[in-house]
Prior knowledge:
CATH architecture of the largest domain in chain A: 3-Layer(aba) Sandwich
Oligomer: homodimer
Largest sheet of chain A: 6 strands, mixed
Helix content of chain A: 25-40%
Largest interface: A-B, 61 and 61 residues
Amino acid sequence: MKKLINDIGTVLTESLDGFAAAHADIVTLGAEHQFVRRKQTKPGKVALISGGGSGHEPLHAGFVGHGMLDAACPGQVFTSPTPNQMLAAAESVDGGAGVLFIVKNYSGDMMNFQMAAEMLDRENATVIVNDDVAVENSTYTTGRRGVAGTLIVEKIVGAAAERGDSLAALKSLGDAVNSATASMGVALSSCTVPAAGKPTFQIGADEMEMGVGIHGEPGRRRVKLGSANEIAAELAGACLKDLSLKPGREVILLVNGFGGTPLLELYLMVNAAHKVLAGAGVKVVRHLTGPFVTSLEMAGCSITVSAVDVDALALWDAPVHTAALRWGC
Amino acid sequence: MKKLINDIGTVLTESLDGFAAAHADIVTLGAEHQFVRRKQTKPGKVALISGGGSGHEPLHAGFVGHGMLDAACPGQVFTSPTPNQMLAAAESVDGGAGVLFIVKNYSGDMMNFQMAAEMLDRENATVIVNDDVAVENSTYTTGRRGVAGTLIVEKIVGAAAERGDSLAALKSLGDAVNSATASMGVALSSCTVPAAGKPTFQIGADEMEMGVGIHGEPGRRRVKLGSANEIAAELAGACLKDLSLKPGREVILLVNGFGGTPLLELYLMVNAAHKVLAGAGVKVVRHLTGPFVTSLEMAGCSITVSAVDVDALALWDAPVHTAALRWGC
């Protein structure tokens, strides 16, 4: 294992200290590194809290700030945060209008966020993200996995929270965005969890894992590496099929790097995905390209297609000021 | 070689097509993919043009837009663009106040930009960036290499061009920023140039290349992998030594990923670099962290320290709207 670390036991806390120092204008750390929160919260606004295992940076801490999350609870690498973290975060950022949890559909996260929701003596609701169309059920999941589409849910719901939408309205919007969002990924290499010290899976020099999860979980099948066009056809095709989009429908296209694939290739995949979407008559109205929901240093990418109406598009375009996404302010 | 590509011969053009589609609000492509330019240029403003081999994305095309570059000329991977590309770019974006070329110090780039400067029938000047303190002379370089500090030169000079500084003033500012900027990097793995099809260099499972260049060129020495703290001490220490900074001096700290190292580790390196700089009494007033000047999928990072006065800091903070850097607009 080759990593820029000091000690396996302190990877997360040292990284969070660096993150907090680098973005001191936006975030502060909770006690004992339990959560990352906005420096300033807005009274009367619903508080948005997400979290999950680390190793997917910039998700989620990189999306804390104006227009997106109020707090993020980081677990150890690929390990759920605890209910105590979520309760401490809720205590810290609740503005009196309730708390919305945004949770990726993994068994550990679901159990711990549910426990926090039950223990929390404030009005709360939960949006579950399960945008990965590759497989039903998986190593850590019952049902579909939550992957890169989480970013889109957090951005759109975050903007709605900023304009003052109620908890019930945000829960409903989050569910709707999740339903309109589909993702699928491919891995060319494995990732290595620091505490494990060896690659999560083995893969041949000419193979790819089609439909991989963001923890290196198995996808649909292990096959010979295809061309970018073939891969884009399968990934974007699976998203289109899942969403049953009619020609003329407007979408956001997110080409997400898993960590080890350079931008040169990600933009090539954007070009390839465009052809697939154009072929289906779908209109890409917004783009996001880069490593946003990663799997440590895994090589590969995912394609996310999110259908948007006028309101969702305006919320996507609304100002955001976080470590990893910033526009309009 | 495992990459998300269709054909080795069209990697660059397909990637540029994807880039232009993804950022159609900011850039347009020149004919025959000769350059990437701002969609809108400002008459009476000095035009800033950079470029170099591809494979370092988002450098340079990702820095084209308001507040930074007017155009970028992409060569094939790790190969200089041609003088014709630079002349076509200059023709396209010159606003009548002259052209400033920003060139990383590699023999191919230097020769071709110099040829373009001589052929160009418009007032022009050139800023040479050579911020890499690791070694004098290298595989492709006479003198020091230009690496991640290029981004800082492009941002600060770009902001000054936007406010209307003259060509002579920008040339002088660019030289000053370059002199105040030092970088050094470390690689844990090699990169693979698509046309070569195999890793640029071999490195042992427990080794690192200390002082590596952004094309995988040799650095100071090949040694056993050290801890993040040891690596930060050497990288940041070399920058501090080169700049001879007095205690109390204000700096921008750029922790740059080479492509294959996750953000989790880069932020851990921020934390480690902070301790080194604090120990020297230097004050980090701004941060930038992420893969900005990459070497395809190489694992590793570089540390850049750039000393700033009040004017340079204001120019760093000035609005920028490019694919890879965006704030204030």
